Amino acid sequence: MNLITPAHPRLARIAELARREITDAERAAAIELCETKRVALFIVAYNAERHLSAVVDRIPADLLERLAEVVIIDDSSSDGTWEVARAVAREHPRAPIRTFRTPFNRGYGGNQKLGYLYCLERGFDWVVLLHGDGQYAPEYLPRVLAAAAGDADAVLASRMLRPRGAISGGMPLHKWVGNRVLTGLGNRILGTDFSEFHTGYRAYRLGALARVPFQANSDDFHFDGEIIAQGVLAGWRFVEVSIPTHYGDEVCHVPGLRYSWQFLRSLLLSRLVRLGIFYKPNFDIALFGDEVYTFKRSPYSLHQWVLSNLELEGVAASLELGANRGDLSRHLAERVPRHVAVDRSPPDRAGRAEALGLDLEEPFAEALPGRPFDLCLALDVAEHITSPETFMAEVFRAMRPGGRLLVSTANVAYLPIRLSLLLGQFNYGKRGVLDMTHVRLFTVSSFVRLLRHSGFRVERVVGFPPPLTDMISPNPVLRLAERIHAGLARLWPSLFAFNFAVVATRLDDVEAILARTTGDGTGRLSAGDGASDAGGPAPRPPA
């Protein structure tokens, strides 16, 4: 370890703490990691001419020369930081120091993006982030690397594992309080238990870093919060280690109030993206995999309502269009003599149903075996179709007159969407009302009008709440909220329904009515495809 006695009393204290606190096991683990893996130390620097040289000098010598590279990127400082960085490289000829200067000021987050991309291109295994202003203790690099030697994906060097130590290290009281409050709120939002979100001393496994779109993060100071949120979404294993706090004469460039707002806003957006009701590309981390449209188990959901309320007596042949994997069709096939499940690829979980792969954007009625059907379900399909009018015409052709149609869609007039529009927001997500794959959006009235124009008589509209317990958690509070919301959605679907179902009856087509009109007067058909004898009463819709 460097035998340098810092002039600043607090730096001398940190050096002494490092000598006493960092164990021989930690030093040995750090050295082994550097010898078995390619570890880079990345120093971000902006207007740090007074501190940068000391930061490098304070790096333990037995690690400095074992690092694969020390990368210093000056973010177009307005002082002499760039000249100091080049001088530091000359002063340590045995250390693998490389210095760079951005062509223009990129910001704190923008500088990090360049460093991480550089480290990825160089094929390093780990990268350690260190600030060039001396606020974080280079003497504790062995502790950070020792933690990285385990199975961690990220190591956070926290000043708040010993909260009172941060005060004794010179952290101003208002910053200490702000750190604690913001960290507490951040933990509540993400469901984590970090002691500190705001450390600038971190290590990332580059294999894990490569799997999150950090390039899409902010160029501002809340980049650090966004990358933690990305790691949480990606399932990273975080490890926190304790470091001392040092506040000297360095200049803080972080605007406190703006940073606080941006930090909390980013974490909230990451949660909304995870729920699928908002979209930001930096938080799109393998969202939902192939299970965007899952079978809902909430008792207030559309799927459970269908299973509980759909009258199947007298139904000989039924059809589900847009059956996805076939979970609902599997249940229906147990209760109907013949059931056909259709999606772009044959549903693989449709059980006894006949699974069929068809493109519903194309004419499909003629390709359906055994039509006409007594019952057709098309749940949350129409909004994915470029021409719902053409789709409904094909549904009409697939059904017998008097047959029942159960069709559903998202409600673009749902109250939260209306409020968002009032605030000038219209934000797509990976699922929900504003699913990014939705190409047509409907209100209750516009969807009912579509069905009537397509030859169906609307019998009933049923509204449903967002499936909170399926999307988030089946805890009692959410179950109660979902139950209340379900009551409101039933009472006033056009305003409170997240999505809604329409029960309708397929009417006779004009050709069939003409055949009956010009026939032999007995009421029997003389022409027409699948027309009814007399167009008797419609089957009873679901209760």
Task: Describe it.
With 543 residues, this protein is α/β, with parallel strands linked by helices. The chain folds into two domains: 9-283, Spore Coat Polysaccharide Biosynthesis Protein SpsA, Chain A (Alpha-Beta Complex), CATH 3.90.550; 302-517, Rossmann fold (3-Layer(aba) Sandwich), CATH 3.40.50. The protein is built from 21 helices and 14 strands. It has helices at residues 9-21, 24-36, 52-57, 61-64, 81-91, 107-121, 141-148, 163-168, 173-190, 206-209, 223-234, 256-275, 302-309, 327-333, 388-398, 415-422, 444-453, 468-471, 476-491, 493-496, 510-517; strands spanning 39-45, 69-74, 97-101, 126-131, 154-158, 202-205, 238-242, 317-321, 338-343, 354-357, 373-379, 399-410, 456-464, 499-506. α2 packs across α7. It is elongated.
Give the oligomer, counting copies of the same chain as homo and different chains as hetero.
single chain
Mean pLDDT: 87
Helix tally equals 21
Shape: elongated
In what range is the share of β-strand residues?
Answer: 15-25%
> If strands are numbered along the chain, what order do they take across the biggest sheet?
3-2-1-4-6-5-7
Return Rg in Å.
Answer: 32 Å
Going by CATH, the homologous superfamily of the largest domain would be Spore Coat Polysaccharide Biosynthesis Protein SpsA, Chain A
> In the CATH scheme, what's the topology name of the largest domain?
Spore Coat Polysaccharide Biosynthesis Protein SpsA, Chain A
User: Which percent range fits the helix content?
Assistant: 25-40%
Major sheet summary line: 7 strands, mixed
- Care to count the β-strands? 14
Distance between the termini: 78 Å
Task: Provide the number of structural domains.
Answer: 2
CATH class group of the largest domain = Alpha Beta
Supply the CATH architecture of the largest domain. Answer: Alpha-Beta Complex
Helix-strand makeup class: alpha/beta
Identify low-pLDDT runs. Answer: 1-6, 288-292, 521-543
